[in-house]
Write a structure and sequence with these properties.
The structure holds 2 protein chains of 2 kinds. Chain A is built from 15 helices and 11 strands. Chain A is α/β, with parallel strands linked by helices. Chain A has an 11-stranded mixed sheet with strand order 1-3-2-4-6-5-10-11-9-7-8, sandwiched between helices. In chain A, helix 2 (25-43) packs antiparallel against helix 3 and helix 9 (317-332) packs across helix 11 (364-377). The longest helix of chain A is centred in the C-terminal third of the chain and has 21 residues, at 383-403. The model of chain B has no long low-confidence stretch (mean pLDDT 90). In chain B, helix 1 (4-13) packs across helix 2 (20-37). Classes of the chains: A alpha/beta, B mainly alpha. At the A-B interface, helix 9, helix 10, helix 11 and helix 12 of A face helix 1, helix 2 and helix 3 of B.
Amino acid sequence: MSELPLADRTISEIAPLLEAGELSSRDLVEACLDRIDRDAGRLNTFLAVGAEQALEAADIADGARADGVRAPLLGIPYALKDIFVTRALNEDGQPDGGLPTTAGSRILAGYLSPYASDAEDRMAAAGAILLGKTNCDEFAMGSSNENSAYGPVHNPWDETLVPGGSSGGSSVAVASGQAFFATGTDTGGSIRQPAALSGVVGMKPTYGRVSRYGMVAFASSLDQCGPFGRSVRDVALVLGTLAGHDPRDSTCVDVPVPDYLAALDGEVRGLRLGVPREFFVEGLEAGVETAVRAAIDTLAAAGADIVDVSLPSTDKGLATYYIITPAEASANLARYDGIRYGASAGVDDLLENYRLTRGAGFGLEVKRRIILGTYALSAGYYDAYYLKAQQVRTLIKAEFDEVLSSVDALLAPTSPSVAFKIGAKTDDPLLMYLNDACTLPVNIAGLPGISVPCGLSDGLPVGFQVIGRAFDESTVLRVADAYERRAGFTELRPPTAHD
Amino acid sequence: MISRADVENVAALARLHLTDEELDLMEGQLSRILEAIAVLQDVDTSMVGPTASVLPLENVMREDIPSDAGRLTRAAALGNAPLREGDHLRVPLVLKEGR
């Protein structure tokens, strides 16, 4: 048994203790709330915490367990990225005690959703207990969490550093013992990159595997919901609950959800794993490359057949992504009009009301992307930018499909660097965008990818990616788990865990 | 590459007010971003179709039967409106007198 404090353990470790009655759900919720309380001023992880509701739900879960009720995540406390709406209005339009949703934006300050996201619904049905909503980059646009209107999230490994983004609050909640798991969204790396920089496991499922219903939209052809956990097994467990068809999301595919835990047999013998040489990009830190190469060696020693492969259009990914996502975002964000919900300038002229509401409500990065996206879609530029990017997208996807027809999965770095200083890249959008060079091609192709901790570089966590075929999360999880069992980084926690 | 007037025009299309400072900043940054994006012009896509979605999406058909699933009450739907008049959203004038 682990010597780690309760709040830092994995779900897989504590589940048998809950079952045996040695621990209660209330114990777990209290352990998380203690950490949330302790770290509130230092890490800025949560935008809303529902302590009373969580304790009440814990007692209900403990009672249900005593009555013989069983559910996959019964009594396990978790956090939702504040981009998932949580029901907070009753039928009479009055607050019902649910948590507000901001998407990290001023324009949604105080927004109380009249409906629940599919993620909230599924977690409730599985018995999980919502602790709160985590901080994130505004509308999930960012790689450092510095674009939140509610202040940056700090990295628990070193509070002067960013945790990665956009789901930085979720990665930090899991890394610092404030929640046993969390949800995130990943459009170009927003789950995998903060997972890498915060030292936890994070997975972006195949586009279409998980419902986006109730997820505030950024770029609809790439956005996908996925879990953060402290082990691959925990992530597999949570994914099994999140995944599945939802008729409320027309892009959520009706394909069977396999038993992900059953795929975790610890074996990689007979698997062919490709290493795309273009992912070892210019600017990849030496310490990151060393850790990722060592992870590949570990899988080779475990019996996997490692092969060098090529994805030649990888260096076109960034440009493709920074046309498609701002274009889709500029259309999605048109809904913030100051009339139906959200902040309003309250000016008596309709056009001025739109302009001033949006000018005051959106932060700088969001404005930058609206301008870029509107430009790319405007008359005379559509073919040169948006259409061109969609054509290159076809090429990038075709290259992945071709390579993945001869290998079972791909291995690559998650992020070119470890966590960097808060403020270091905020003046240079292009430098900031490079953080996602190794993750965003996976979104462009719609494939599943996971980031798994593979050691430290200069005392900071490094992650590597396993990328798989569409809807083959099982193989991705199997490879990641087989690595994790052999690597011995499962108890990697920030120094604060032992305070 | 991109002028201040271009940024102003795009901001107008996007119904987005930008301060003078923001306009200055965007002018420089957008030019640099567009330069970086120009690498796509070197890719031969003459024989390649566009991908709007990675999924082979088809229209989803269902029987036209009314359902309460996902239905919001009027009060809940109006619960976040900045300006209301009774059971209606209040919207600033679209057409002005004399037009």
